[in-house]
Amino acid sequence: MTRKDRLAAGRRPDRGAVAAWCLYDWANSGFPTVVITFVFSAYVTKYVAESEALGTAQWGTAISLSALTVAMLSPLLGAIADNSGRRKPWLLAFTGLCVLMTFGLWTIKPTPASLLPALVLVAAGNAAFEFGQVFYNAMLPDVAPRHMLGRVSGWAWSCGYYGGLAALTVCLFVFALPEEAVFGLDKESFEQLRITGPFVALWFALFALPLFLVTPDRPASGLGFARAARQGVVTLIGTFRQLPRYRNIARFLLARMVYTDGLNTLFVFGGVYAANTFGMDFAEILTFGILLNITAGLGAFGFAWLDDWIGSKRTIVIAVAGLTLCAGVILMIESKLWFYVTGCTLGIFTGPTQAASRTLMARLAPRELLTEMFGLYAFSGKATAFLGPILVGWVTLWTGSQRLGMATILVFLVVGFILLLPVREPGAGRA
User: What's the pTM?
Assistant: First the structure.
């Protein structure tokens, strides 16, 4: 360990900055939990689209196009940010765009005429959400000392799951379950479900605010946007040319590209699968989402210490193995009760997979290319993300069976697991 590493290891974290950074995960998790996974995905496929099977395919296609946009532009935006210095302005812009798109979901009525606007709003909001993650993730090494990267990353993911849990709880007990709709909402036009869009938007805006007020940012480089953009392009081209030099990082990004595709597809179609295969209504879907977030939050929180103890790579290996086993069981069971049990068990491994992946990238990336590398990290999470949803959607449409469509997820998890094994993590398990 070099002197610089020893100094970094001894650095005490700014507790306020860490808390504000973690709270952003609490803030933004309402979007993927309520909009992408559990409520709006099921609402659109069941009540807006012409049929559930066609709606599943159309929803999957929209999410895939959104993911492809993120994959293509994230490395470039990261390179530009590294040259301009500051990350907060980028994060603020994409946070605002996601909030705006999510608020607009109120306008989506239960008619096929609303399908295209729904898909546009969701795809644009999802792209803004993912772009924001590039700059948010790149702030981790500046917020946490190296020996605490795993814990801070895991705590943030845990906050995210419980933020999603809290948002879902409000949706369930304030909007979905009461016989008399609050605020005079009209249940015949599903306003009790549509209101979740503005609710999630306000939730995101409110709880994201402390990060922008408290968490420090890197100083501006003094370069104007045009010059930073030009240098960013040059830097990115140079990085791609030197990928053989970063062979270990490239191996990790390839593995993550594959297993994350499987994991993201689980999120995209979790609510749809629960609704259509197991006949779960919205109240049941929200209840399952609450239980899933409880176990996922516990997993992210508990595995955070394991990450710093045995290393990020080993933590990911354990988590992906657990995901694969649980997903395989879910595809075979018929009982709604066992779907609840196995799905919640699967949740234990989702948080560690994501949190430890972020930590491993922070440990592997060169400091001077951190945001760019997290742009490539976002690329690895989205470059093939169109494959998972499209395969699930179209295999479901061709076969008429969501079980067969969802079975394609197992391939991504297994291949990603195998590709991860040769990755070397420097200093694993020394903290």
Answer: 0.82
